[in-house]
Design brief:
The protein is mainly beta and 519 residues long. It has one helix and 47 strands. Among the domains are: 79 residues; 64 residues, no CATH class; 73 residues, Immunoglobulin-like; 83 residues, Immunoglobulin-like (Sandwich); 38 residues. A hairpin with a 5-residue loop joins β21 and β22. The longest helix is centred in the C-terminal third of the chain and has 23 residues. The protein is rod-shaped, with a radius of gyration of 68 Å.
Length: 519
C-alpha cells in the first residue's frame, strides 16, 4: 500500500518573527505538534508576543497545537508587537511598568506623592517626566506605546520651617513668603523647597484676651530672610504690656499725662492738676481710694489699671467767727474759720471750773442751751457761747430727824433746800422706796404697822443736779392692849417718861379687871 504524503507549511505573522520547527512532509494521518515561542525579543524594550495559531485560516486555541496530516496544511503563528514601559522613581512605589501592545495606552503611577522622612525633611512629587507627563502622582497622562518608553517621577526636597513664640498668651500671626504668601497663626510648620529663600514677619502687636493687655514683639531669631538648606525653627519673643487709663471725675475737666501702655511692674507717677472751679478730692485706682487729698500717686503696672482723679465743684466759702464770754472756751477754739457753703460745723461749749454753760447766740439770737450746737454755714455767722458762775452746791435737810409714835399717829416732815438752780423737784422715800405722790417740799408720814422707818428726801434742780437728805428715824409702836392710849401733841416727841406713864396706866387697868373677875 502506498501511503499518501502531505506537506505541512509553518510560518509566522508577521513573516519572519521566528523559525518554528515542524514544517515538512508527513504520512497521511500523522499528528504533528507545533510549538510557537511565547515571546520573541526584537531589541531593548521591543518584542513580539505570541497571540494564537490558525491552520488553513481557522484559528486554533492553545500553544502548542496538534495538526493531523490528512491533507496539505498551512499553520500560522500570529504575534503581536509589544513595547516596554519603564517607570522610575526614587521614592514611593511605582506602578504601570510592563509590556504593552503597540499603539495601546499606558499610565505610570505612584502610591504616594509625599514622603516624610521624620527629621524635618520630606520629598514631594512634582510631575512626570521622560516619556510621561502630568502632575498627578497617582496616574500620569496617557502614554501611547508606539515604542519602548520610560516614565520618570520628578520629586522636590522640602525642609520644615517651624515658627514659634514665647511671651504672648495670645497666638500671633506670621506672614511669610516662600512658594506662596500665606498668613498663619503660631505655632505652625511649613514645608519649603530645599535651597529656596523664605521671608517672614511676625505680628508686631498682639492684643490680649482681656482689655488692657497686649504683647509686643521684642525679637525674632533667626532674622528674616533665610535660605532653607535644612530644617529650620524660627522663634519670636514677646513682652506683655498693660494699659493705664487716666480719667477725671467729672469727665473731661482736665487732661492728665500718663495714660498708655507699660511693661510689668513699671511705676507711673500721676499728678492731678489744679482745675479752675473745681477742688481735687482724691485718686482711685480700679475703684480703690488712694487716700483723701493724696496727690501725686504712684501706680505699679502689674495689671490693666484705671486711675481716676476725683474733683468736686468748688463751692462758695463763708466765715464762722466763734466767741465766748468769760468762764469757758469752745471746740473748735474761739477764732474765725472759713468753710465751704453748706458745711455743717459742730461747736461744743466747755465751761471752766466754777462756771456753767448758759446759752448760745448766733448773730445775736439765742439759739438754745444745748452744750453742742451745729451751724450750717450758708452765710457768714458769729456764734457766741455764754457762760455764768456756777451756783452754790445743792443741799437739802429735813425735820424732824427722829420720832417715836404708835400706829395711827403721824409725823409731819418739812424740808430746807439751798444752792443749786431753782426750780426744784422733790421725791420722798421711806426705807429707800419712793412714796407715790410725795413730790412736794413737805411730807406727812402715817405708818400702818409698828417698826423702825427711815425717811429721806431727794431734790433735783433745773440743771439736773441732785441732793439727798440724811435719813430721819421713826420708831412706830403698836397700840396698847385695852384700848387705852395716851394722846400726844402733834409732832411732840415721845420721851421715856411718857412711856413710863403709859405702862403704869396699862398696869392699873389690868388690876381692876382682875378684881372684877374675883367678885
Amino acid at each position: 500500500v502506498v501511503l499518501r504524503r502531505y506537506y505541512l507549511t509553518v510560518k509566522t505573522d508577521p513573516v519572519g518573527v521566528a523559525t518554528i520547527l515542524g514544517e515538512n512532509w508527513y504520512d497521511e494521518g500523522t499528528e504533528v505538534t507545533l510549538t510557537a515561542p511565547n515571546t520573541v525579543p526584537v531589541s531593548a524594550g521591543v518584542r513580539y508576543k505570541f497571540s494564537y495559531w490558525d491552520v488553513d485560516g481557522v484559528p486554533k486555541t492553545g500553544n502548542p497545537i496538534t495538526v493531523v496530516m490528512d491533507a496539505n496544511h498551512t499553520a500560522t503563528a500570529h504575534y503581536v508587537l509589544e513595547y516596554y514601559l519603564t517607570v522610575l522613581s526614587p521614592f514611593g512605589t511605582v506602578g504601570g511598568q510592563g509590556w504593552y501592545p503597540s499603539g495601546s495606552t499606558a499610565y505610570a503611577t505612584l502610591n504616594t506623592g509625599l514622603v516624610d522622612h521624620g527629621n524635618g525633611t520630606r520629598r514631594v512629587f512634582v510631575s512626570w517626566g521622560g516619556d510621561a507627563s502630568g502632575t498627578n502622582y497617582a496616574q500620569s497622562n496617557p502614554i501611547v506605546m508606539n515604542a519602548s518608553k520610560t516614565a520618570i517621577a520628578n520629586w522636590k526636597t522640602q525642609y520644615a520651617v517651624t515658627f514659634t513664640q514665647t511671651g504672648s498668651d495670645v497666638a500671633p500671626t506670621v506672614t511669610y513668603t516662600a512658594e506662596t504668601d500665606p498668613t498663619e497663626t503660631v505655632p505652625f510648620t511649613v514645608w519649603v523647597l530645599a535651597g529656596s529663600q523664605i521671608t517672614y514677619a511676625y505680628q508686631n502687636i498682639v492684643l490680649g484676651n482681656v482689655p488692657g493687655v497686649r504683647y509686643t514683639l521684642t525679637g525674632v531669631n533667626p532674622p528674616s530672610p533665610q535660605i532653607v538648606n535644612a530644617p529650620l525653627t524660627v522663634s519670636a519673643s514677646y513682652q506683655v504690656q498693660y494699659y493705664l487709663t487716666v480719667r477725671t471725675d467729672p469727665s473731661g475737666i482736665a487732661t492728665i499725662p500718663g495714660e498708655g501702655w507699660y511693661n510689668p511692674v513699671q511705676s507711673v507717677e500721676l499728678t492731678a492738676p489744679t482745675v479752675a472751679g473745681y477742688t481735687f478730692q482724691y485718686w482711685d485706682v480700679n475703684g480703690v481710694s488712694q487716700g483723701s487729698g493724696v496727690n501725686p500717686i504712684t501706680v505699679v503696672m502689674n495689671a490693666p489699671k484705671t486711675a481716676t482723679a476725683h474733683y468736686t465743684v468748688a463751692a462758695p466759702t463763708y466765715k464762722l467767727k466763734i466767741e465766748t464770754t468769760a468762764g469757758g472756751t469752745t471746740n473748735p477754739a474761739p477764732g474765725t474759720y472759713t468753710y465751704a457753703a453748706g458745711s455743717q460745723v459742730q461747736v461744743t461749749a466747755i465751761p471752766s471750773s466754777g462756771y456753767i454753760f448758759d446759752h448760745w447766740e448766733l448773730n445775736g439770737t439765742n439759739v438754745g442751751a444745748a452744750t453742742t450746737y451745729t451751724v450750717t454755714v450758708d452765710s457768714n455767722y458769729n456764734l457766741k457761747a455764754f457762760f455764768k458762775a456756777a451756783p452754790p452746791l445743792l443741799t437739802v435737810s429735813i425735820s424732824p430727824m427722829s420720832a417715836s409714835i404708835v400706829v395711827g399717829q403721824q409725823v409731819a416732815f418739812s424740808s430746807l433746800v439751798s444752792g443749786g438752780t431753782p426750780p426744784y423737784t422733790y421725791q420722798w422715800f421711806v426705807n429707800n422706796n419712793p412714796v407715790p405722790g410725795a413730790t412736794s417740799n413737805s411730807f406727812t408720814f402715817t405708818p400702818t404697822a409698828p417698826g423702825i422707818y427711815y425717811v429721806t428726801l431727794k431734790v433735783t434742780d433745773s440743771a439736773g443736779n441732785t441732793a439727798q437728805s440724811e435719813p430721819a428715824r421713826v420708831t412706830v409702836l403698836a397700840v396698847p392692849v385695852g384700848g387705852y392710849s395716851v394722846a400726844l401733841a402733834k409732832n411732840a416727841p415721845i420721851t421715856l417718861a411718857m412711856i413710863y406713864v403709859m405702862l403704869l396706866g396699862l398696869f392699873g387697868a389690868l388690876l381692876t379687871l382682875a378684881k372684877r373677875k374675883r367678885k
